[in-house]
Design brief:
The protein is mainly α. It folds into 2 domains: 57 residues, Homeodomain-like (Arc Repressor Mutant, subunit A); 120 residues, Tetracycline Repressor, domain 2 (Orthogonal Bundle), CATH 1.10.357. It contains 11 helices and no strands. Helix 5 packs antiparallel against helix 6, helix 5 packs parallel to helix 8 and helix 6 packs across helix 11. The longest helix is centred in the middle third of the chain and has 22 residues.
């Protein structure tokens, strides 16, 4: 197997294990999942952390997400567009939920890694901006601010245990969109009109 193919195979075997065990995954587990001897890992990567960094970069590579966001298009009504955004982005965040803290662990001493993580976030936010932009005149805030707020609410909904003491209840996709576009006030029920009979 060519070195690049072996590298890709090891990363592919590592990702599901990291999604289950986080950075505590062992090289023995990775080797078993990849169907190779443990020493093979160190013939491709200098150490375990190098493999975990490469797997994280793969997990948080925004290319597929950005392409899927672009495919939503701007033909749908804004609310429907945002529902599609929330469903897509939230699903991908949930898939990587166990990896959420890992980038900070590695970014502390790896400037390139930190910059790539920030660039990934910027690309996803930029793709959401493109979907919001046609309706900029309907919004109180800029498309950039709207995209940023939407990502923050999605992140809190996925990682709510990290941001509160348990009082924040889960939110459905539609509710996330409604909170962004309508705020937190409950809409009053329309008052029934009474017809007077003479």
């Amino acid at each position: 197997m060519a070195p690049e193919d072996r590298r890709a195979a090891l990363i592919a075997a590592t990702l599901p294990l990291m999604r289950e065990h986080g950075t505590a995954v062992s090289t023995r587990q990775i080797a078993q999942a990849a169907g190779v001897a443990e020493g093979t890992i160190f013939g491709v990567f200098p150490d375990k952390n190098s493999l975990l960094r490469a797997a994280l970069m793969s997990a948080f590579d925004p290319t597929a997400t950005v392409e899927a966001l672009a495919a939503i298009g701007t033909e749908l009504e804004l609310r429907d567009r945002l529902r599609a955004v929330v469903k897509l982005v939230r699903g991908r965040m949930i898939a990587n939920a166990k990896l959420f803290a890992a980038p900070r662990e590695f970014a502390a001493d790896d400037r390139e890694f930190a910059e790539r993580m920030m660039e990934a976030q910027r690309r996803v936010q930029g793709a959401i901006v493109d979907l919001v932009d046609p309706d900029r005149d309907r919004l109180r805030r800029s498309p950039q601010a709207a995209a940023h707020l939407l990502l923050m609410v999605i992140m809190v909904s996925v990682h709510r245990g990290l941001f509160d003491d348990g009082g924040f209840e889960d939110m459905e996709d539609d509710e996330i969109v409604s909170v962004l576009l309508d705020g937190l006030l409950v809409r009053p029920s329309p008052t029934p009109t009474t017809e007077s009979h003479t």
